[in-house]
Amino acid sequence: MFKVQVKDLKFNIDKKEILKDVSFDVPKGSFVGVIGPNGSGKSTLLKNIYRLYKPTNGSIFLDNKDLSTMKDKDCAKEIAVLAQESNTHFDFTVEQIVKMGRYPYKSVFEDYSKEDLKMVKDMLKKVGLESYTERSFSQLSGGEKQRTLIARALVQNTDFLVLDEPTNHLDIGYQIQLMDLVKSLKITTLSAIHDMNLASMYCDYLIVMKSGQIINAGKVEEVITSEMLKEVFGVNAYVGINPINKKLQVSFMHTHEHINGVGHDHIHEDGFTGEHEHYHEHTQAAL
Ligand SMILES: Nc1ncnc2c1ncn2[C@@H]1O[C@H](COP(=O)(O)OP(=O)(O)OP(=O)(O)O)[C@@H](O)[C@H]1O
């Protein structure tokens, strides 16, 4: 069963095609990553899905309902978002920001209930910000802001989560903590993600975007290959298996690297055979 279905989505800005006939399905309960170079259309795709943008053409279905026909408040009970930029929070405290996640459940003059406040408190604890409740959001570090915003998205208590580069600004400890937290909720998640190793650890499926189109999609093991990394990002990479968690692991390399030292008969990891200078450290290693 699919949580989300995107059919022939096109999105133009000033007649420029930013998304071209994008179609894919997100299976219920899965964690789907969207990867691709800068400017390939990942954020624009997500913005169409969380309704910041209106598709120029095509449709998006959430639980078989056409998203364009849903009311904003109903949508907010169904989709929680951690967006990339967040410059609209002026002078709210951390607690006020996280409480906003409960807004879709409130009627006009209804105040936050004990349950709402407990949810907010518990979530702040989960993201390591329990002592930050009264701190001003605008004065937080990039990582603290990101953790506040994920807490807000999670108290919204939806079945579908859209994340736009959620680990932005986070140190590696908090990157893993955030991804573990999201994964433990087992809710359908669609996330733009730059880090291939995090993508491999957490995603069930990947969508690869290039120039506003999906050029590849499938299970992580099918999608993350050294060929794809070369074609899409123009980088050389070694893709192996982590012996402990059995997940794919990617190591990036210089333009070409040597397998067995340098000299006239050495081999290059990427099969390179042309004339070239050696890096100083390689020459040293061979002496
Ligand atoms: N409001 C806008 N006006 C004009 N062009 C835009 C606008 N928003 C996005 N674009 C263009 O659309 C393309 C896709 O941008 P988008 O932000 O979706 O890429 P992305 O894959 O998320 O990139 P990144 O990895 O850098 O976050 C880019 O060429 C960008 O310059």
TrEMBL record:
Signal peptide: none annotated. Keywords: ATP-binding, Nucleotide-binding, Transport. One of its GO terms (molecular function) is ATP hydrolysis activity. Residues 4-236 form the ABC transporter domain. The keyword ATP-binding applies. PROSITE patterns: ABC_TRANSPORTER_2. SMART domains: AAA. It comes from the Bacteria. InterPro entries: AAA+_ATPase, ABC_transporter-like_ATP-bd, P-loop_NTPase. SUPFAM superfamilies: P-loop containing nucleoside triphosphate hydrolases. Gene3D superfamilies: P-loop containing nucleotide triphosphate hydrolases. The keyword ATP-binding applies. It holds the Pfam family ABC_tran. PANTHER family: ABC TRANSPORTER ATP-BINDING PROTEIN, HEMIN IMPORT ATP-BINDING PROTEIN HMUV. This is Iron complex transport system ATP-binding protein. It comes from Romboutsia lituseburensis DSM 797.
